[in-house]
Amino acid sequence: MARPWQAPLGGLLGALLLLLLLPPLPGALGSSGGHGEGEGEGNGTVAYQIVTFKWLHVKDPYIIALWILVGSLAKIVFHLSHKVTSVVPESALLIFLGICLGGIVYAADHIASFTMTPTLFFFYLLPPIVLDAGYFMPNRLFFGNLGTILLYAVIGTIWNAATTGLSLYGVYLSGIMGHLNSGLLDFLLFGSLIAAVDPVAVLAVFEEVHVNDVLFIIVFGESLLNDAVTVVLYNVFDSFVAIGAENVTGVDCVKGIVSFFVVSVGGTLIGVAFAFLLSLVTRFTKHVQIIEPGFVFVISYLSYLTAEMLSLSAILAITFCGICCQKYVKANISEQSTTTVRYTMKMLASATETIVFMFLGISAVDPKIWTWNTAFILLTLVFISVYRVIGVILQTWLLNYYRMVPLGIIDQVVMSYGGLRGAVAFALVVLLDEKKVKDKNLFVSTTIIVVFFTVIIQGLTIKPLVQWLKVKKSEHREPKLNEKLHGRAFDHILSAIEDISGQIGHHYLRDKWSNIDRKYLSKVLMRQSAQKTRDQILKVFRELNLKDAISYVAEGERRGSLAFIRSPSIDNTANVDFSIINQMNGDASVSQILRDTSSSVCLDMQALEQRRKSIRDTEDMFSHHTLQQYLYKPRQEHKHLYSRHEITPDEEDKQNKEVFQRTMRKRLESFKSTKPGHNCNRKYKFHKQGPGQKRKTSNVMPNGNLYTEPVKEKDTEVSEAEENNYDNLHTGLAMDFLANVTRQNIMDMSGVDNPVFSADIEQTATMRFPPWLYSEEMVVPSPRAQEQIPYSPSNFQRLAPIRLSTRSIDSFLQVDLPEERPRAFLPDSTPM
Amino acid sequence: MGASHSRSEEIQELADKTGFTSEQIEHLHRRFRQLSGDQPTIRKENFDRIPDLEFNPLRAKIVHSFFDKRNLREASEGLVDEINFEDFLTIMSNFRPIEMDMDEEQLDRFRKQKLKFLFHMYDSDSDGKITLQEYRKVVQELLSGNPHLDKESVRSIAEAAMMEAASICMGQMEPDQVYEGITFEDFLKMWEGIDIETKMHVRFLTMEPIAPCH
Q: Where in the cell is it found (chain B) (predicted)?
């Protein structure tokens, strides 16, 4: 197991090592190069140089690119070994890597040239991570737990900041820490920056742990929303320290409290406003699809910068921008753009996260910032852990009075343990002004230690802890249609119960909100076409079908062709059939034939066919059908014209869609297919329908007389009825042919009472219809079939069973597919 | 009205039966009075007076379930014309949240009770099975809020959902088997792994009713 990747691993490691040496190396080269250049200029350019080495010219972007490359390569290396990454969180590994890199750089250069500056962090590294978090936020869960999250984010953070700061100050007064040039305010300032749980660290660790959704959203939501508190506390204490403790008045304190509301509400509003703008813009980007994804990023980033500019909470702004716009943006932009947005966002977030942790490691390697004070550092670690636990317990105790689903002890343990500190704290502490805060270096070193401790130690141990405590994990289940439907029903039922009992509760509010959303917001912010398809249930339905289609095609690929589509006999379906045949009548000849032509039952049916029909006809029809329906046309030479503004839709795409549509048809058909005895009913119905009838009537029919139809009909009755209808048919030859075929089959069937058989006859019958006869109204399932879910041979999800028909999904497709895509796969109906 | 002590006894009795606290019962009683127009019983028409209910797509089904005998008294079917306060409470108690001190067995019963209520709501002809017919109707009502969805696709969804149910409950089926509908056992099976007890609940407050009704 380990062997195969050892060689490439070694190679990669070598390459990586080379790269590690690169940054300092060019650094050294760069200085000399620059020097040389200067000399050259001094001498006056003697000759024109064909090749010049201009390191300084490209230095900064070059180094940035190199760092990103190193980080990404490091990720590859980490993931070569599953053992390591399953135990050690990636963030911890990256920090170690950063320390190593920092060491190398330092050894080569003797100055810590690369550290994470607050500007770099707040302007470039943080926004992508937070945007990603907001844009993919499970909104329902988030708003469902908003109260809890807010309590932890606001009260929890204030609690942590105050207690940590005050306790440290108290201990300092006792004299254990020796002498520091700090007053109470400095300690509170430090407390406020160390108090906040960090979204980057939490995400990095919790994503690997997979705790249940509620727990995750609470910890994660807290880490996102506590930004406002952190920013305000930090700013307030920072300015207090600047003006000096003795000059702080009560007015200033009030101002601080007011500024909290301004900062948080203002940040949120900015985010919502930009989300509105973004949604509105994407509504009109239909013709500039290629830059569609760009809007998402640019406008969200602008919300961040705007909030920053107005000194509001930028994290809140971009979070809420993502949260609010996701629904409309996802509905508006095209499928390709959605994918692009998703991947770009994930890539940016993941890359920046890598860099953040790596830089944290690198920044630690700088002797200038290290000031060791054992008591201070240790006590900080103790206090933040202890107060986190106490805070969580107190708040949960309070919350459980109000929460519908109380948080248990295990949840509380994980929540306290998940209080990871990270890069935000580091960036804030670096931002401190050394002139005002005398002990800045001590604070910086302590912060680094705290961050490393929480990310590495807690990150390492949280997984075993979660396992040991048997915390409810999040399960990745396939989306189930029933679940979605019931979920929807719940929403309505619960809001109704709230209405009836006369309370304004959670469901009541949500109900009202979704009404407003449907009536006004969606109309303004969503494209017309998107409004139709945005329904969640429809989405799940579609997803399921798509998955089926994919697995279906994959199955086909596995077997080398899609031929099995027309021969269900290969499937377990047919195996069942065989055994039954053998059991039921022991008809050696039939089963023999079946076994011999193990490739398909259809062949056998063809043989029966040939008794009445000329071989040629059938084969023509059959092959035509096969070609038309199941084989792709050879891929056409694509004209690869370069265009910056358009991407021509892929041929493959079209084919995928085609397969999808076909599978959908199958899926529903298989489910509708009746007990064998009722197959004739279907045909009977079809004839009764008459080809001239419009689709609408055929839609109504099954609904109209569901109970009135006799449940069982004898074959003879059917043929009688059919005969009548047959006479009434006043269509062209094609229809006659069709009727003929069916009639013959039914006649045939009256002789054979093997149910399995009839099913197959029916199938071949449909298959024999040439596409030009393929009308939508062809087969209407019998009422009984609709009433009762019939057996479908093998696993439903796998859509193995194939009963041909053309109905029942088209309308869905109509809804689902953009209008411009014609239903090309159905040869246009109504035989003339 | 009766003397005050008997009233509090009555409330206590109801509280024991339904699991509500006496404040909640007081509160719900006020609401009941409000809905019924100070009558001892509520009829279907009384529910029409709740304006917020008007746009609820499942309105008919929900109101119906208040008068469904299966939800009120065990082992009988059909509808009653009016319900008294105790019945009202019985229905409401299906939506109580779980309590911290419930043990496994209680939880299980609680869960079943909730699901039973739901099942009865879907199974409109009370034959113990949710047929495709019934399911389709529910789905139709559910999706009626979306005017863009046409009937046909709603049907397809119902069918696909039923198919899914069949595959969950029956697994591999014999060729000539017919899945006739979701029985309560199947219903339980479908809900396995989903915390209904954490989903199907309403916070019953002790405050004055706020939502208007006329």
A: Cell projection, Lamellipodium; Cell projection, Ruffle membrane; Cytoplasm; Membrane
Q: Cα(A655)–Cα(A634) distance, rounded to whole angstroms?
A: 11
Alpha-carbon distance of A263 to A316, in angstroms, equals 9
- H-run or E-run covering A196: none
Cα–Cα distance measured from residue A87 to residue A759, given in angstroms and rounded to the nearest whole number: 55
Within a domain: B1: no
DSSP secondary structure, A279-302, as one string: HHHHHT-GGGGGGHHHHHHHHHHH
pLDDT value for A41: 44
Strand partners, A814: none
Residue pLDDT, tens place only, A743-801? 444 444 444 444 444 344 444 444 444 444 444 444 444 444 444 444 444 334 433 33
DSSP conformation letters of A596-622: HTTT-HHHHHHHHHHHHS-HHHHHHHH
pLDDT tens digit sequence for A576-604 = 333 333 333 434 334 444 444 343 334 44
Looking at residue A177, the DSSP 8-state letter turns out to be T
Mutate to test the interface with A, among B67, B129, B153 (most CBs of A within 10 A): B153
Which residues, numbered 101 to 160 in chain B, qualify as contacts with chain A under a Cβ-Cβ cut-off of 8 Å? Answer: 118, 121, 131-133, 138-139, 142-143, 145-146, 148-153, 155-157, 159-160
Classify residue A519 by its DSSP letter: I
What is the reported pLDDT for A764?
41
Task: For residue A789, list chain B residues with Cβ-Cβ distance below 8 A.
Answer: 132, 162-163, 165-166, 178-181
Supply the CATH number for residue B98's domain.
1.10.238.10
Q: How far is A811 from chain B (nearest CA, A)?
A: 6
Tell which residue, A56, A318, A354, A68, has the closest CA to residue A200. Answer: A354
Least confident of A2-11, A265-274, A327-336, A623-632: A2-11
CB–CB contact B163 A789 (8 Å)? yes
The interface pTM score, or ipTM, of the predicted complex is: 0.85
Is residue B86 one of the residues assigned to a domain? Answer: yes
Domain count, chain B: 1
Task: Give the pLDDT score at B203.
Answer: 66
Nearest to A404 among B190, B201, B213 (CB): B201
Q: Which two structure tokens, joined as six digits, stand for B190?
A: 């479908």
pTM beyond cutoff 0.90: no
Q: Do B97 and A404 touch (CB under 8 A)?
A: yes
CA dist., res. A217 & res. A317, Å (int): 18
**Beta-bridge partner residues of B179:** A789
How does pLDDT run across A22-71, given as a tens digit for each residue?
Answer: 444 444 433 433 344 444 444 555 678 888 888 888 888 888 888 888 88
Say whether residue B45 is in contact with chain A using an 8 A CB cutoff: no
CA distance B58 to chain A (A): 6
Chain B residue numbers touching A816 (CB-CB < 8 A): 153
- Give the pLDDT confidence of A247-295 residue by residue, as tens digits: 778 888 888 889 888 988 999 999 999 999 999 999 888 888 888 889 9
Q: Cβ distance A742 to A718 under 8 Å?
A: no
Longest dimension (CA), chain A: 110
Q: Judge whether B2 lies within some domain.
A: no
pLDDT, residue A463, reads: 85
CB contact under 8 A, A668 and B98: no
Higher pLDDT pick, A807 / A214: A214
Is there a domain that residue B103 lies in? yes
Chain A partners within 8 Å of B168 (Cβ): 482
Which of B142, B172, B190 faces A488 most closely, judged by CB atoms?
A: B142
Q: pLDDT class for A201, splitting at 50, 70, 90?
A: confident
Q: Structural domain of residue B98, as residue ranges?
A: 8-209
Q: Which residue of B58, B151, B199 is in closest CB contact with A496? A: B58
Q: Is A652 on the interface with B (CB under 8 A)?
A: no
| Cβ–Cβ pairs < 8 A, chains A and B | 218
